Write the C-alpha cells for this entry.
Amino acid sequence: MSRRLPSFLTVTLALGVASVGLIAGPAFADSQSPSTCVTACTAVFTTAGSTPTFVVPNGITSLTVTVTGGKGAEASSSIQVSGTQGGPGGSTTVDLGAVAGGTTYQVTVGNIGEGSSVSRAGTLLVVAGGGGQAGFLGRLNLPDQVSGDFAGGTGGSPTGPGVFAGTDGTTPNGTTENGHGGAVAAGGAAGTGDTNGTDGTNPNTTSIVAGGAGASEVVPVQDPPNPDVPTTFTAGNGGSGYSGGGGGAITRGLLDGDGNPFDVVGGGGGGSGFLAPGLTATAGTLNSTTTGSVTFTYSFPALAATGSIVPLWVPVGAAILMALGVLLIVLRRRFAPGRARH
C-alpha cells in the first residue's frame, strides 16, 4: 500500500508560497501605488490640515519625499477685482536614502497659507513654507473701488540644509504695508501703516509655526442714498512655516502721482522653509493653486531571473521555498512504497 504525504506538509507548503506575495504598504495615505509596484511607487498625502504617518515598506532601495506648502489665501475683500491668489507655497524634493523598513515618518499637510512638513522620531526634517495672503489697493470707503489685488509672499523652498526665508508681500507703490517673509532666525516682520499687522512666529525647531495676522479696520462704505455700510477690511495674513511670515498693514489716504487718494491693504509674507543637516534637496514647482501635499516615492529591487516582483518577501520567500523543497524530498523518500525484494 502506498503512503500519503502528511497533510501538515501540504498546508505548510501552501502557507509558505502564500507568504511570498505579501507586501507591506504605507499606512494612512490618501492614495498609494498597488502592492505590485516596484519602481517609483508613491504614497500621497493631500488631506489639508491632517497629521498622518508614513511607515516605510521593507526592502526598499530608495526613498524621496516631495513636500509642498499651501498657497496663500485670496485678498480679504468682497470687492476684489481679479481674485488674485495669495503667494505660492514652497516646494522641495528631499533624498532620504535607503531607509530601513518599518521606519515611521510624521507628516503635516498644510491648508491654505500653511506650510507642510515631515518629521521622524520628533525631529523636524523638512518644511516647505506656506504662501502669504494677497493684499490690494483702492478706495475702501467707495463701493467697487479696488484698483488691483496682489499676491502675498512666497513660501520658502529648501535646496540644502538650513532655513530658507519666505519672501515679502507684493502690494506695489513702494509702501511699507507688506508683511515680510519668515526669516532665518525669527518670524517675518509685520507690515506697518495706520494699522499694523503682527509679526510672524519665531521658530521652535520642532514643528511648523504660524504666520502673523493681517491688520483689520472697519470702514464706512458709501451706499447712496442709503446710510454708509460699516465694512471690515483685513490685510493679508502671513504664511506659516519653519518661521512665520509677517502680517500686512493698512494705510488710508495716500496720494498717487496725480494727487488722487488711495488706500493700501498689504499682503502677508511667506513662511520660511527648512531642511535638516545631512540631507540633500531640490526645489520643486511652486504651488499657486491648492492646499499643501506630501508625496513619498520609493522603489524595490526587481527579481530579474523571472521578471516577477516580490519586493518584501524575496529573501524570506526564497529561503522558505528552499527549505520546504528539501523537506518535501526527504518525506517523499521516507513515505514512498517499499521496493519489492527478490
